[in-house]
Design a protein that fits this description.
With 180 residues, the protein is α+β, with helices and mostly antiparallel strands. The protein is 41% helix and 21% strand. The mean pLDDT is 90. The protein binds iron/sulfur cluster (SF4) (2 copies).
Amino acid sequence: MEIPERWRKTNLASMSNSEIEEMIADMRKADRSVNLPIPFLPETIHKISAMFHCKRCGRCCIGGAEGVFLNQLDIKRLSKGMEMSEKQFVDEFTFISDGRHFLPFPCPFYDAKSSLCIVYQFRPDKCKLFPFYPSSNITITQDTNPSANKVSAISISVRCPEGRDIAMRLLKSYRDSNKR
Ligand code: SF4
Ligand code: SF4
């Protein structure tokens, strides 16, 4: 599902609470991430992670618009952990899209009975970060050091119920702090 056009043009500063909630619900339906005007830096990630309490709902492992992206180190680590050759692993578990490897959804390593990842210690970087990522298309300058290089903004997957709630709280608080 595409994101409705109105959310592409909306200015956060003028949005009401219900508009923010509606926008996030639409982003969720479209399985998109919400970009926040916050730099993706260890200290901000640490702060946001402290608000995060996984509900163990499994939504991150069961489904989404695309699969779980795997980088070369993920493939190396997972195949070694599973005592397979990289080729065997890739052939058996991944699909390729735009020349990149992905695990399909539902993830073959999700155990629905226990709600656990059976390759947890070898899991892909994307899963370690979920639901917080550096935005691939938005950069911002750090407030405290305007001369610093631009860094990626934080992007939150709102497929995750905790990610959705945190994104909502942060967007509302950012809007309010910019009204003063
Ligand atoms: S979707 Fe979010 S809350 Fe649910 S299991 Fe994954 S990380 Fe935890
Ligand atoms: S590798 Fe593990 S954490 Fe990642 S999607 Fe699969 S089951 Fe979930």
